[in-house]
TrEMBL record:
<feature type="region of interest" description="Disordered">
    <location>
        <begin position="59"/>
        <end position="87"/>
    </location>
</feature>
<feature type="compositionally biased region" description="Basic and acidic residues">
    <location>
        <begin position="59"/>
        <end position="68"/>
    </location>
</feature>
<feature type="transmembrane region" description="Helical">
    <location>
        <begin position="191"/>
        <end position="211"/>
    </location>
</feature>
<keyword id="KW-1133">Transmembrane helix</keyword>
<protein>
    <submittedName>
        <fullName>Uncharacterized protein</fullName>
    </submittedName>
</protein>
<keyword id="KW-0812">Transmembrane</keyword>
<keyword id="KW-0472">Membrane</keyword>
Amino acid sequence: MCKQIIPPNRVIVTNNLLGSFLESPPAPARKGKRNIERFPFAITSERYQEMFRKKEVLKKQQEEEKENRKRKKQEKRNEKQGKSNNSQTATQCSACLKVIRSGELQSDDYKRYYHQKCVPQSHERNTPSDDDLYIYHSCYRLSDSDQDCEDIDDQEVDELYEQYNQAKKHFTNDYTTLYKTRPINDAFNNYIFFAYVQIIIVSVNSAKLFLNMF
């Protein structure tokens, strides 16, 4: 067995007593304000399992509350939309197809709504005079039978059809006359010509559309 040979002129210093002179450095001060949650080191510990269960319960509760809020909003939206659709259907003018928003009157048949200005001339004799702006109008029941209502509708359709044919005839004649007599190189007359043709076309289409409503 070999032994360590120490020269007589060398000194060995051990560090066994240095620990009493050394100190641990101070922990750095925490500057951030965020509250960071500290997780346990072992995921199998009871503390970690309890924390995990609480988070799952809280997450599930928040999702249920969110779904309930969405469902209530959708129910309110559907309810408002249903009321709006019912209101528009019940108060729609049969002539101009616009909504009558207030002051409507009702008869026994509940067939058609009309604005005061949209009531056909053949129906004016049945229009009440106690409303200034709006009127609910339909065929009024007579004591004898409903044949008079059908006669009034047939008469109105005949009048509209005759007006449509007259407008179409005037449009054809005016178009032919203006096309033959207008100066070719006059820009202003060309503009007036096309504007007049557009007005006639709109009038004929309006009469045709109004005729198809009956």
